[in-house]
Write a structure and sequence with these properties.
The chain contains ten helices and no strands. The chain is mostly helical. It has one domain: Heme Oxygenase, Chain A (Up-down Bundle). The relative contact order is 0.18. Bound molecules: 4-amino-5-hydroxymethyl-2-methylpyrimidine.
């Protein structure tokens, strides 16, 4: 009831409070360059190879959130939302392989760059059973929301996204994925509303860390330019 006073959930409040960092993560120069059609294809290729490595590390993290949802949640529908996320990663890995071959990228030769290694170790740290479900699911939401928001922006009506990148943008920018992110956000809001202060503080710190890591991840696309 309390959160309804101003109609905003905790997440919406955090996005407002940390607007400049949220914007840095979702309106990064790499994303802007896709949207205005000036994207450097070697940057796109670098991002694609790195993101495949990231998604492989993301799978066990999402599985760990699913396990926490089964053990800790007060609402049995949480598990289904987590399972939906895990299932879509199955398609995503197949898509990466197909897309990489289209661009002539050999995924097995792709070496993770340092920002990617840092992000993957952060995911690993969140898999510990010491990390509360509320904190882990906040990270899960933030990771997905940054991509949803960034790529949906590239598909807005006035965008000049190159035709050959539209499918990539639609992977994360599509409406269905947007709705799924909203379901996840509702779960996070519900959990945060009931959580002790100490857990809420941890979740906020994790949210901010995800945003920083996302900025560094996009920055990798510029290596060597
Ligand atoms: C770096 C990064 N963040 C978020 C997502 C969303 O799944 C992704 N594929 N890669």
């Amino acid at each position: 009831m309390e959160e309804k006073k101003d109609g905003l959930g905790v997440i919406a409040k955090w996005v407002k409070k940390h607007a400049s960092l949220y914007e840095a993560a979702t309106r990064h120069p790499f994303i802007e360059s896709i949207r205005n059609g000036t994207v450097d294809i070697s940057s796109f290729r670098r991002w694609l190879g790195q993101d495949y490595i990231f998604v492989r590390a993301f799978v066990p993290f999402v599985a760990s959130v699913l396990v926490k949802a089964c053990n800790e949640t007060d609402d049995s529908s949480d598990m289904e939302v987590m399972l939906g996320g895990l299932a879509s990663l199955n398609d995503e890995l197949a898509w990466f392989k197909k897309e990489a071959s289209k661009w002539g990228i050999t995924l097995s030769d792709t070496v993770p760059l340092s920002a990617n290694i840092r992000y993957c170790s952060f995911l690993k740290s969140l898999m510990s059973s010491e990390v509360e479900y509320t904190v882990a699911v906040t990270a899960f939401w933030a990771i997905e929301a940054v991509y949803q928001d960034s790529f949906a922006y590239c598909l807005e009506e006035d965008s000049k996204t190159p035709e050959e990148l539209k499918e990539t943008c639609a992977r994360w920018g599509n409406e269905e994925f947007g709705e799924w992110c909203c379901s996840l956000e509702e779960i996070v809001n519900r959990r945060l509303q009931k959580a002790p202060d100490e857990v809420v503080q941890k979740a906020e710190a994790v949210f901010l860390r995800v945003l920083e890591l996302e900025v560094e991840f996009w920055d990798m696309s510029r290596v060597g330019i």
